[in-house]
Design a protein that fits this description.
This protein is about 35% helix and about 20% strand. By secondary structure, the chain is an alpha+beta fold. Helix 4 runs antiparallel to helix 5. The strands form 2 sheets. Strands 1-2-3-4 form a 4-stranded antiparallel β-sheet. Strands 5-6-7 form a 3-stranded antiparallel β-sheet. The protein has 2 domains: about 110 residues, Roll (PH-domain like), CATH 2.30.29.30; about 30 residues.
């Protein structure tokens, strides 16, 4: 569980959901009180601007269907303060936000990774015997071959 506070917002990430909470005067003045919760599958990208000696940085979550606009040079952080999917951080807070960024990117990548197909359930002994009996009845196996295969299955 990652739980960090930035300037005008807090972010909590439990591995599945990201919750952006707005508490305090600055958060209420810019976004209003409340929280936004996103499942990691809803997040398309994580935008990042590191903090510098004189400017704050930000982390911004991109969601499909969201309205994004390219900020003018020098106004990225100011524009991020107005975005409901962004949280601003200081140089001192940056290491914790870097951990959050890495965890989010790993969770997003895991969502998009191909899933291994489920292994077929092993057939029961009764199913195997029924298949052998069907093959015998169709004339594919002789009665002697059926008995040999049946003995092999029962000895396992």
């Amino acid at each position: 569980m990652i739980d960090i506070s930035g300037q005008g917002g807090q972010i909590q990430f439990d591995g599945q959901y990201v919750t952006i909470t707005r508490k305090g005067f600055l958060a209420r003045a810019t976004h209003g009180k409340g929280e936004k919760r996103l499942h990691v599958s809803q997040i398309a990208a994580v935008q990042w601007k590191p903090a510098g000696p004189m400017v704050n940085g930000f982390i911004q979550l991109t969601v499909p269907g969201g309205i994004e606009q390219r900020s003018k040079f020098g106004s990225q952080t100011l524009d991020a303060t107005k975005d409901e999917n962004s949280v601003i951080f200081t140089k001192k807070q940056q290491p914790e936000f870097e951990k959050l960024r890495a965890a989010l990117e790993q969770a997003i990548a895991a969502q998009h990774a191909p899933q291994a197909p489920a292994a077929a359930a092993p057939a029961s002994l009764a199913d195997e015997l029924a298949k052998l009996a069907q093959l015998r009845d169709q004339g594919i196996l002789s009665p002697a071959e059926f008995e040999a295969q049946k003995a092999r299955l029962l000895s396992q």
